[in-house]
Design a protein that fits this description.
By secondary structure, the protein is an alpha+beta fold. It contains 14 helices and 18 strands. Among the domains are: 76 residues, no CATH class; 197 residues, no CATH class; 76 residues, no CATH class. The strands form eight sheets. A three-stranded antiparallel sheet has the order 2-4-5. The chain has a three-stranded antiparallel sheet with strand order 16-17-18, with no helix packed on it. Strand 16 and strand 17 form a beta hairpin.
Length: 630
Amino acid sequence: MWLFQSLYGPDDPNVPLGYTYDSVIGTSRPFGTFAFGMRLANDGSTLNSYTLNSSVANSAGFLTTDPGIVSRGTLQSSPFTGYTELGDKSCEVLVFNANQYGTPVGGYFEPTKQNGIRYYGCMHPINAPFDLWWRPLSGWSDSYAPQANTSAQGYVVSGLDAATGLNTAVVAEQPVTPLQSLADLQNWDVRGFNPAPPFIYGLIGNSDAVPVLPADDVVGRWFDNKGVYKTRDQVPASFLQHDDRYCLNHVLFDDWFVSSLTPDYAKWSGLNDDSKGAAVMTELKTAWSKVIDGTAPLANRAYKPSGLAASLAIDSTGPVSWTSATTGGTPVPDAWLKLGAFLTVNGQFNVNSTSIPAWRAVLGSLRDQKIPVLKAATAMSMDTIGTGKTALVRMLPSPETSSTSRVAALTGYAALTDAQLDALAIEIVKQIRIRGPFLSLSEFVNRQLTAFDGTAIDPCLRGALQSALEVLQQTTASLATTDSTKKAYNLNAATYGKPTTPVTDLKLNPAGFSADYINPQAAVGNSSEGLPGWPRQADLLRRLAPIMSVRDETFLVRSLGEVATPEGTSRAWCEAIFQRVPEYVDPRIDAWKPPQGDFLATGSNPYMANAVFGRRVKLVSFRWLRADEL
């Protein structure tokens, strides 16, 4: 109980916990209540009526009216966590085996035994996904009693009462249509049963620093059983505390893409069975042939078949089999490995661009679009967001419209005005100038691994797009005019949340139960962050990821030729368009293979030309120019 009193204050002295037997024998009478639920639902308001006398407040470091502790929404406490190893449990399950690194100094580790080491942040509830709160009650009408609406629904997500909470909330998506972007996976709870903090939701496509991890690293830290801080080169093999967002983005965005090639949607219901493998392959072959002849393009219209697409056999197999690492069983299909070499990107965009109009055009691709909305117990409708607005949708269909009410602001979607879109493009270009040029897509998506420099938009705190959105969030009031047709429908999620507890607050560092913030600035924010109505980087990447690149593939080249003669100088101008294509300079190596095929990089390699020159560049067009065309 000491920890709860340190965090939430002493019990209200006006509510007695001791009742005589005679006082309750004839009438049932509540004496207290427990609230157990999502940490993100505790926005501090549930404790605002605490009235502590000044001596208690001053001695404990509390205010006379204290708001409890508030964390940073789903960026700090995932509502989908099913298992944790916090508190003393962390000391029981995280084991340092001395045999991994030799005999430790002092010799106090016992190999293969629980030896008291713990993850950073495991001893403080601010880093937990759930909250347990005890409160004495004065009677059934006490405001601290569990609350519900007339349909007996309680309150969740944004608060625990009618003034702050939601009765229902859809905050994640189970895809019901083919994926078209890597960022469509942002709702995938990749951490699963990882029991170590940080408990984060919305991993893929987002990139925010974590308060319990160093700003310049992706690996956590730990304490041994003597309370000694340990560095990353002393991490045990079973260590599970990492910056999951950074690692996932690094693995996915540079090596993978979503082709959107799927069987005909009408056939899906007959293919969802492990025994339907051959039928699925047949449908994929049919779908691919329709992509090639143009009768049924890919769901992602940006992807077009290349001139060699007909040579790809969708049912091709490689040397690996299902039952053996080499041969001996049914061969594994390998078209997934080859498909990217047979697709081109229509409208590919270089994210190193510092052109504000170019970014404005890409961001505005969903301007004036209708958004499908599917609410509980109602038929799906098309939400008209109004002229001059651009939707940033987390889920399709969206569970809510874009509006300023609490439920829509938190679980609907943001709709940016033209003025806000202009401001966003400007801020993105600022971030590119600060961070670029980017040499890989994951470098563009991820935050930078540097020490915190003290500024609120430091590149180590979040990715480039999220930093731009952060500036927009802070300045949106000046952009929202009184004209309702120009006002932002939804950058209001912050107004329904509460600012996070200041990192200097004593409740984050009571003796023996520190929040262990290595990077405190990463904990500064709002309790609503991460909910669907709060615009996130991955929301932008849903439309941007399929077309983005860190290099240009098409080049316009103009040339001038001059010759001096006794009669004067003659000039001629020409223009050529060159394009980089998937095929290698040495075509003996397939475009989907490494530059030198299966050969090692040696001086005698017959395919060394591909390592030096890479892909072919072809002449697309050529023409002579007139002087008035320059």
